Amino acid sequence: MGGGEKLTLVLAEHLSLAHNVFLFSAEPLDVPSLEQFFDVDLSRVKVICLKNPGSLSRVLGRINGSNVSLHHERQLRSFELDLFINNSYASALTCPTTRGIFMCMFPHPLVNNVVNSYSTIVAISRYAADWVWKRWDRHSEVLYPPCDDMGPPPSAKEKIILHVGRFIADSIEDERHHKGQGLLLETFKRMTDLHQQGWELHFTGSLSPDGKSRTFAGTLMRAAEGLPVFFHFNAASEELRKLYRSAAIYWHATGYGFDADKYPAKQEHFGISTVEAMSAGAVPVVYATGGQKEIVTDEVDGYWWTDIDRLVNQTRKLANDATLRSELGHQAVLSSKRFSRETFVANIDRLIELCPADFKLK
């Protein structure tokens, strides 16, 4: 229930207006839940769960991924598709058609150089595109993900600092996002002056079903006991919209604590939640790395921070100056318009028209 999933479903919904669209998955999908959570209409989309080779793996690419991908590729070829769009992170799937688009959230270590079987590579930010060139030696088209407008902002904001991000157990060894909820909680804990002024910290996001992630969420909740800190796990779209519209400040910390050159994938690849917070007039205070610097302009529509002291000082500055919050919040709303669903679907239509039809598999 994250940004990659949202991009896939918005893409499928839009293309189904003019094309026959199949949505392939490696495991069964709860379509009604997805439609409700992401506010999409998949009624014109044919959802197909690919078969896995026996009990080898339930999820594409997790165990002997290249073997699972080969099994899936054979099934996909039987559909004789005109265009195949792969939006599966770290996919080892060779393109099953002559026209293929590989949607790259961030370039992963390659298996048999499968990306060269795709005629077009799409990066979700300039940051990701730069690393596609460095790691894969391929040009990529930049297509920012679709972001919902959570406005209009209310006339009066509440004293709420909001963070939106998946609650997922993390390790240095893999390249999953490090959302930094623990860091933000510890930072807010020391800002007792804000507690006394009535400020609250709210965390929301999908909670992964695995045991480690649930343990991680439980640890956060115990650490927040006695503080004006609130958790909203798996919040429905209306609840999330209400939180965005209520919040005066938005915090984002993905990538902090990880060297950007050594762990580039752990930086924020883009940051849909930041854009959506801005659309509701919340002033973003974000860790200055990755795709966040393409969304937020420092001291114009939000603030960048590079260390905890700067995060604290910028937040205090905003908390104590309602006029400043209003001015930056207004500019944040205007800046967020660059990343609308309408812009996304217009760009994807253009991209599909440009996708070469005579591409030769490599």
The gist of it:
37% of the residues lie in helices and 14% in strands.
Essential attributes:
362 residues, alpha/beta, Rossmann fold, 2 domains, six-stranded parallel β-sheet, four-stranded parallel β-sheet, 13 helices
Textual characterization of the structure:
With 362 residues, the protein is of the alpha/beta class. It has two domains: 158 residues, Glycogen Phosphorylase B (Rossmann fold, 3-Layer(aba) Sandwich), CATH 3.40.50; 179 residues, Glycogen Phosphorylase B (Rossmann fold), CATH 3.40.50. The chain has 13 helices and twelve strands. The strands form three sheets. Strands 9-8-7-10-11-12 form a six-stranded parallel β-sheet, sandwiched between helices. A four-stranded parallel β-sheet has the order 3-4-5-6. Strands 1-2 form a two-stranded parallel sheet. Helix 4 links the parallel strand 5 and strand 6. Helix 1 packs across helix 13. The chain is globular.
Show the helix and strand layout:
Blueprint: H1 3-15, E1 21-25, H2 31-38, E2 45-49, H3 65-77, E3 84-86, E4 100-104, E5 120-123, H4 126-136, E6 141-142, E7 160-164, H5 181-189, H6 192-196, E8 200-205, H7 211-223, E9 229-233, H8 237-246, E10 249-252, H9 272-279, E11 283-287, H10 292-295, E12 303-305, H11 308-319, H12 322-336, H13 341-354
Parallel strand pairs: 1-2, 3-4, 4-5, 5-6, 7-8, 7-10, 8-9, 10-11, 11-12
Helix pairs in contact: 1-13, 9-12
